[in-house]
Task: structure prediction
Amino acid sequence: MPKKDYNTFSKFFLGRCIVNSIAQLAGLVKREVLVEGHFVFTSGVHGLHYLDKTQLSKELLVQIAYTIATMSDSGVQAVVAPEEGAVPLGEEVARQLSIFVQEDIPFFRAKKGVNGFYLSEKAKAFIRGKSILAVEDNTTTGGTLAAVVSLLRKAGADVVGAAVLWNRGSITAGIVNVPWLFCVIDEPLPHFEPGPETCPGCRDNIPLSAELGHALK
Ligand SMILES: [Zn+2]
Result:
């Protein structure tokens, strides 16, 4: 479905020239959110990079959403993103698509419940039989995105594609089971089992970050 060359998308953003390539946009995102150090992730593995999304500026969020909207087919009728992290991006993608097509493209959140993700009755009623774009902010295994895609299909939606800000696990459209997958940043961030034999951070005695990640505070 992406019809445009990834590196030559429109450089005009609401009348202002902002970025003229995905690579440039990716560089700006990295500068804002990528922190180097020694981190523990939820699953217990260690890594040398952390994506601090709280540092992402509103202006850059809008540019990312604009880029995703330009890469998407004009036939998208609604945008869905999983709670909580991907919601601001999903909302903004829907807003940018609405500007493009001059009609309201709604955003719905895939809500997080005790038994996985679910959709509101309003969302289910709207998306049945419609062309839906799934949006995620960053993905390692693709598990959350695949769960959202499956949820949408069960609700009768036609999932036309998925967009991810940072694909850090080299996932593919096939893994997520969508016709196409667009990633603003397609760059793996390695993770390691804790210990000096396996983790370069442990080996080099870099202190674990107490502010970011899940190290004991
Ligand atoms: Zn380590």
